[in-house]
Amino acid sequence: MAFFILTGSAGHASAPALPTLEVALTAYNAVPHQTDGDPGVTASGAVANPAVVAARSRDLARELPFGTIIAVEPREGQGNCGLDKVASKIGYRVIADTMNARITNTVDILFDKESNARTLGFCEEVTIRIVGKIDLSKPSYLPRSQAVLAAAVGASGLALK
């Protein structure tokens, strides 16, 4: 498995702040009525792995190209958003899929078929922190688990599945 992680910058006394975006956050399952085409394959060509995959709206393609590793940063007061109920299932995610053109400024978290994506609901103004990038030129480069992804990013204390 080949990873390259872009974090911080070498040669500086302190790493620059990692880019963040304020987006809406939703969830989906890899089932025919929630996806386009083959629900087992993402728009990047990677396997639709619910442990690590996220989709982004098309208007965020420049900021979140395929292979971008993100961290969702929940905060208090998310209203009717169910993020607190599913935060342990999110961890870090790799942008490997895209959303319908009618959706804007949104990141969509892929959940396994047993998890109801509706539990998350629609979360407004969630902070997405960009923590790295992996090469998805070969779909097999997508990490298979949160543990592998977290190790690649060098995270500690990340909720693992």
Description:
With 161 residues, this protein is mostly beta strands. The protein has a single domain, classed as RlpA-like domain (Barwin-like endoglucanases, Beta Barrel), CATH 2.40.40.10. The chain is 7% helix and 27% strand. It is built from two helices and six strands; from the N terminus they run βββαβββα. The protein has a six-stranded mixed β-barrel with strand order 1-5-2-4-3-6. The longest helix has 8 residues, at 146-153. The two termini are 20 Å apart. The relative contact order is 0.30. Residues 1-13 and 157-161 have low confidence and may be disordered.
Q: Secondary-structure map with pairings?
A:
Blueprint: E1 20-29, E2 53-56, E3 68-73, H1 83-86, E4 92-98, E5 106-111, E6 123-133, H2 146-153
Parallel strand pairs: 1-5, 2-4
Antiparallel strand pairs: 1-6, 2-5, 3-4, 3-6
CATH topology assignment? Barwin-like endoglucanases
**CATH architectural arrangement:** Beta Barrel
Number of helices: 2
| Content-based structural category | mainly beta
Unreliable parts? 1-13, 157-161
